Amino acid sequence: MEKRNIYLDKLPLTEAKEIILNNLAGNYREATERVKVEDASGRVTAEAVYAEDSSPHYYAAAMDGFAVDVDKTFGASKRDPKELTIGQEAFFVDTGDAVPEGCNGVIMIEDVNQLDEATIEITASVAPGQHIRSIGEDILASQLLAPVNTKLGPSEIGGLLAGGITEIEVRKEPEVAILPTGTELVDPGSSLQPGEIVEYNSRVIASQIREWGAVPVKADKVEDDYELIKNRVDRLSQQYDLVLIIAGSSAGAEDYTSQVIENLGELLFHGVAIKPGKPLMAGVINEKLVIGLPGYPVSAYLGTQLFVRPVIERLLGLTCSQPEKVKAELTQNLTSKLGEEEFVRVNVAHIDGDLKAVPLQRGAGVINSVMKSDGFIRIPALKQGMKQNKQVEVELRRDIDYNQNLLIAGEEDLAYELLCNQIKLQGVGLNLKFKNMASETAVDTLEQKAANAALVKTVGMRQETVVVNLAVSEVGLVVRPDNSLGINGVEDLSQEGLSFVNQQQGRAARRLLDSRLETAGINTQEIVGYRQEEITGRDAANLVKEGIIDVGLASRGVAELFNLDFISLGQITSSLVILESEVEREELKKLLEVVRSNEYKSQLQKIAGYNTEDCGEIIDRK
Ligand SMILES: Nc1nc2c(c(=O)[nH]1)N[C@H]1C(S)=C(S)[C@@H](COP(=O)(O)OP(=O)(O)OC[C@H]3O[C@@H](n4cnc5c(N)ncnc54)[C@H](O)[C@@H]3O)O[C@H]1N2
Ligand code: MOO
């Protein structure tokens, strides 16, 4: 067996999709089953459904009142009212009641004067058919209710039941086997050893598949062993409608997927000109389609979206669904590789009157970027990127209401996470989206209209902005709980043998450290690790916790989260900087209301080292 396989195909996306669909037998799956209409939400009709009954199936009163023979009301007016005898000429009916024989109109109770128990008086004539629902007004027996290959939802269930249908024939849900491969994989919840990875791709894919109306069958993970993978794939392809193999798709020594497919059946292609997702492949084994998905989580997610969804739709007899799209202005230049269609995750929000698309992290391993995104944009294969301010088309993820989005750029802060929770707890219609960056960069980002607010920690003011106090927190050095190195302050950072890790340049905590070092007259070159940067205090605290370094720089709240000892260096004010032009916007007013709420303040006070004095106050305006 050849150990290394280099994939050569670079098929355009549409071509690869076409090959896959062409290798599915027929336009849909033949197998069907009978289900109750009331249980059929999400299912697809396997035959045309015709009404058995009309709805209504009798003449029905459409209003509460009296049913009458309209001829007897002719000529009634305010000046010349007409009297009718109840039970002989006028019959009391409630909405929905059958109209008594001989009656062909209903007069609303509001238009009737009851003179005594047996007599009513009417002041207007009644038109034939007035307030009567005719037979079949809604549905007429024998009419087509739903063509074959219709996906049923709540209103379809109503229509079918109203038409007298209680059971229907639907397409059997395709069963999709998902096989995770990789010796490094462990199940969620296991305690992790270095090199081990939580196997979650199959769970993500299963939930995607369920959403599209198929049944995911999650197979047990298999290690990187050619024979084991081959046996499993062989068996799965005999049992299920479609087989997905996760990982082992690229050029590594233990990447077996393409060889397995080739040796069990036919490999249709290996490699698509998309990013992420480039090593994706497809084949046919035991007459079943098999798709090899790249192992990186974003690649696996996107590959499933692009290739598995249309297959499921085809098996169900549905046409390919189109995502909802919206046009937005790109907030930064993006470069990309010529010859690859790149999918970039973005957030979308109204900023200073325009709808903007703000790119997120592009790494194929960052599933969090999908979770945080509102959708993605495509950079065409024949482009080497896209320019800032270009109008782009964003393909939205389902259920996204970007009108409630506010983009916050700035320094990570426990107060911000609390704010996000408070917004949801208080039932405020806002979604905060965060982009982590140093304060100075955040204010630049705000000025470039690429964020609705900057979360900054002590930074110089800019024109046309309003600064609102968010929180005051204590920042200092974090060490392991026993503080065995006896760190008492910045003077001890130059101890021999001690390892330190700094925060990213431009971050407030680092500036505070620098000023303390300067006051103490300590040369930063004497501190081992001063130039080694982690982005945030949380990153640094995590390294101390893991025993990788001795001292880091973080807030007291973060130190407490990681159960670390804390040596205070001082206080830092976190503020929200907002564009003057947006201060009166409804969404920003809502945000500031939460910052000013007692619930937010009382929760914030519970975090170690936080001070809520002046919380929500405007501290500066230029
Ligand atoms: N020399 C080259 N190396 C790589 C290339 C290349 O062209 N030449 N392509 C890169 C690209 S692009 C991708 S995408 C990945 C595809 O990798 P594989 O499909 O071979 O998958 P693995 O290497 O096994 O895993 C990648 C990554 O994903 C994690 N993983 C895998 N399965 C799961 C799972 N079920 N749940 C969660 N995470 C999973 C795995 O642990 C790895 O971290 O190859 C590049 N390399
Ligand atoms: O195709 Mo890979 O998914 O670009 O990282």
Tell me which CATH architecture of the largest domain applies here.
Answer: 3-Layer(aba) Sandwich
Q: Which molecules are bound besides the chains?
A: ligand LQZAQKY5, molybdate ion
Number of domains: 5
Q: What's the CATH first level of the largest domain?
A: Alpha Beta
Would you count the extended β strands for me? Answer: 38
Instruction: Round the mean pLDDT to the nearest integer and report it.
Output: 93
What proportion strand?
25-35%
Category by helix and strand content:
alpha+beta
Quickly count the helices.
14
Fill in the CATH topology of the largest domain.
D-Maltodextrin-Binding Protein, domain 2
The CA-CA distance between the termini, in Å, is 71 Å
Give the C-alpha Rg: 34 Å
Principal-axis shape equals flat
Which oligomeric form is depicted? Answer: single chain
Helix-strand layout with pairing:
Layout: H1 13-22, E1 32-36, E2 49-50, E3 60-61, E4 65-68, E5 82-85, E6 90-93, E7 105-108, E8 112-116, E9 119-122, E10 132-133, E11 144-146, H2 154-162, E12 167-171, E13 175-180, E14 185-186, E15 197-198, H3 201-211, E16 215-218, H4 226-239, E17 242-246, H5 257-264, E18 266-270, E19 274-275, E20 281-285, E21 288-293, H6 297-316, E22 325-330, E23 334-335, E24 341-351, E25 354-359, H7 367-372, E26 375-379, E27 385-386, E28 391-396, E29 405-410, H8 414-425, E30 431-436, H9 439-447, E31 453-457, E32 465-479, E33 502-503, H10 508-520, E34 533-534, H11 537-545, E35 552-555, H12 556-561, E36 565-579, H13 586-595, H14 598-605, E37 610-611, E38 618-621
Parallel strand pairs: 13-16, 13-17, 14-15, 17-21, 19-24, 22-25, 29-30, 29-31, 33-34
Antiparallel strand pairs: 1-12, 2-11, 3-10, 4-6, 4-7, 5-9, 8-9, 18-20, 20-21, 22-28, 23-27, 24-25, 24-26, 26-28, 31-36, 32-35, 32-36, 32-37, 32-38
Helix pairs in contact: 3-6, 4-5, 8-14
Bound molecules: ligand LQZAQKY5 and molybdate ion.
